[in-house]
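Handout, section B. The chain below has 156 residues.
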Amino acid sequence: MSYCDLEKVDVNEMPVGKLIAILARAQATYFNHILAEIGINDPQLHILFEINKDSKINQDKIASRCNTNKGAVARSIKKLEENGLVTRTIDENNRRQNIITLTQKGSQTLDKAIGMLDELESYLFEDDNEKQALQIILRDLSIKVMKLNDDRFGKK
């Protein structure tokens, strides 16, 4: 669906989930194009965010926080490591786990990506209040759907 087509749609006739999916795909497409300029993609960006938040993070925790499978995370981390953005070291407390850390280049790349994200959000939102209201709504909806999944299908 093009943005011209979407402008003509009555939002009351479109499920919220479809709008969220359209937004997510459009944002991922945009981000993958601009992130290519700094040598990463959207899933790798999410991994860099998680590593930046937790200096002692392992691949399993990254997979859980990014809501993706361990194999996809392992492939992304391998690529990030090959590009000098992260390092893997064996966890001294659990030798079967690797601790993933950002390199200086990884930190610089993340800073550039955050700048790109800020530019996009400046384009999308009139002001911080509008952005914060949407963040709260999306977080709360995400929590509800995640709880529903846990209740109905058990924890992953």
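Note. The mean pLDDT is 92. Compare this with the example in section A.
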